[in-house]
Amino acid sequence: MLGNCDPAIISLAICISLIFLDIFRHQYNRIPVYTILGFISLIIMAALCNKNAYFLAWLILLFPFIVIGLGIYLKYHKTTPMRQEDSTPHLNSHSPPLE
Predict the structure, then answer these.
(1) Among 31, 35, 32, 42, which residue's Cα sits nearest to residue 9?
(2) Considering only CA atoms, which of 32, 24, 34 is closest in space to residue 42?
(3) Per-residue pLDDT tens for 53-65?
């Protein structure tokens, strides 16, 4: 079932590592949630690999990491937009508006 499906194996490894981390941190209430979600993701990944949809399986596996990476990039590398008064020439209050 998981012989040649790397995304399913990686998903299973992530789930098992999360379960072990919660055991060592004594947060036992999260373990059933990780078990259920890990089992569901394992079934989805294996089904996608059986249908030869490896790209979609990799995309689903890597999507959270891509979103987090993009969020971190945008947080630290965003540019501030130019203020309105900086982009227009200084006009006194009596001049007509430009069209």
Answers:
(1) 42
(2) 34
(3) 889 999 999 998 9
